[in-house]
Amino acid sequence: MQQSRVIPSPRSFACDLATLCAPTLAGLKPASLFRYQPAPGQDAAAMAAAWHAALSPRGVTVRVLRQCPRTGAVLVYVYRPARVARLLAAPHMLDFLAGEGYTPGTADELLDQLAERLCCEGDFPHEIGVFLGYPLADVIGFIQNRGKNFTACGYWKVYTDPTAAQAEFDRYKKCERIYARCYYNGTPIRRLTVAA
User: Fold this and answer.
1) How many CA atoms lie within 13 A of 67 on its CB side?
2) At the top level of its lineage, which domain of life is listed (predicted)?
3) Nearest-angstrom CA–CA distance, 4 and 136
4) Entry pTM
5) Residue 150, class by beta-carbon neighbours within 10 Å (0-12 exposed, 13-18 middle, 19+ buried)?
């Protein structure tokens, strides 16, 4: 007997959340980021708020960092607040962010400053990599090299250890494949979200 399979529908907020943020939902990664363009009549910010309400009891926050006033597209940050807070509280991370012009503060205050930079600055704030859990040395390497001269490229551009980074990329890709299969076969996102 052949198992029935749900056919993927066109991209939706839930689909992007389940597949693009799989490593964060699985607890492998502290945070993920994706851009979502809502269909006419959809309110992407309301969708993010609804998913935040559904996933926050499992230790995952869904937050809109930026919304385009013209198109309604949103930049959605999906993260595990406790892990991001620990990550950003490390002295070397605070020193780096201070050097990039951030005022020291809590993780929420630093995220507010990042959101402000995304909305108001002409240049993209490449320090966003530290908010996604990328190795600090690779984020610094990216900034110093203007995105060139990397030794490997996957979820981020690598300037330090390409072998270790590739192993991490492979873990994330495998997680995304598993989560996509589960999601398309009907497993609810809440069930796919590993509790903190």
Assistant:
1) 11
2) Bacteria
3) 44
4) 0.91
5) middle
**Residue 44 CB neighbour total at 10 angstroms:** 22
Q: Give dist(CA 15, CA 29) in Å, integer.
A: 18
Q: Give me the pLDDT at residue 8, please.
A: 44
Amino acid present at 3:
Q
Q: Which structure tokens are listed for 75?
A: 């930049």
- Residue 133's alpha-carbon distances to 29, 41, 80, 113, 166, in angstroms, are 7, 34, 11, 17, 15
Average pLDDT, the chain: 92
Residue 139's nearest CA partner among 172, 103, 99 is 99
Nearest to 30, CA basis, from 65, 81, 66: 81
- The b-or-e profile of 56-68 (16+ CB within 10 A means b, else e) is eebbbbbbbbbbe
